[in-house]
Automatic annotation (TrEMBL):
GO terms for molecular function: oxidoreductase activity. Keywords: Oxidoreductase. It holds the Pfam family Questin_oxidase. It comes from Pseudocercospora fuligena. This is Questin oxidase. It comes from the Eukaryota.
Amino acid sequence: MVLHDHMPHILCSGLDLGQDSALLIETYETVMKTLVKIDHTFARGEKIDGGRLREYFGKRELTVAFVDFFDEEFRKENGDWKKVVERYLYEGERPLMNGLIGGLGHPIIHLAYAYDFECKEIASEGLSLLLTDYSDFHALMDEPQSDNSTYKTTSLAEVLERVYHDSRFDNLTQHPGIVEMEKVMKAQGTAVIEHWNAWQVTDQLQQLEHICDLGTLLALTTFDHEQEFDFFLLHLMTVAHGVRSMWLHIPENKRVDMLREYGLLAISIYVCQQRPPIRSERITDVELGGRDWEWVRKTAREHPAKFDVHFYKAVRAPEEFKGTWGDKDEFYLKAAVRYLDDFRGWTGFGEGIPGFDEKQEGWSARREYSV
């Protein structure tokens, strides 16, 4: 298995955006065709020893077994899945939360949907994703690191601006793409960590707001001349949205660590995607012409990309941010309108994963309208 299950993301987002039951069923049936059927060949929960979870990191063949394992843990707590999540994520000297940004942050995204929609089934999938995609960056969180920074700032946006101008990252890779991460870290990992260490978290709530805004800018203002949006930078918005959804369920003494993890993800992905310029005017200069959130929801529901499992998330996140942080001179509305006006597919894959053509991932106007 190469890809994650995005069924909860598209169904929950579609529900939030007002899909009726017929369209939700059609969405479900369409996405089901892309998923691997669970059969007798999959290892099941009895294969998992709860005392040895760290030995299973990265074993995708145990995906279903992990789900079984955590479902059983929920049953032991009489269905109190939030108690189980809190125990597994945050307890211990090296808490498992330190690896949440693995797999493009999908464990965070998945767990956020579990909290938003009060769904234990999504929660067990999210914990399974945490183990199958446990981030190699966890070591930077597990043990105190020496501070190699050459400046200090509370603005992650300033950090990325400095990364943008840092010549050490020039010509690191021929292509963008998350598969370039190992090459980037081998060549300039010290520089990545230097910029990461420069970011100081001094006001947790304000800096949570800032990463939501920054994620929106990264996802929705960096599209290319073909009006295709960077697939991996999109995740910096949806992961920020996930952190926001999980926020009140994160112990107060772990919130700085959660923000720090996000910062590390943002810097490393930004470098992998070859540091495209962030063009805030692409949002601020949008002419709304009377378009409102109802227009956004209706347009998204009727868009030809409506069965793309990533499409709705980029609409839902700005609307949720607006509900949390306010209108901000219609910044979030303009961001959603810009996306719906210009979206023609995804880019940023580079050479992709061997054996899987990422360029075929999701909806593409070029494919749909080619002759």
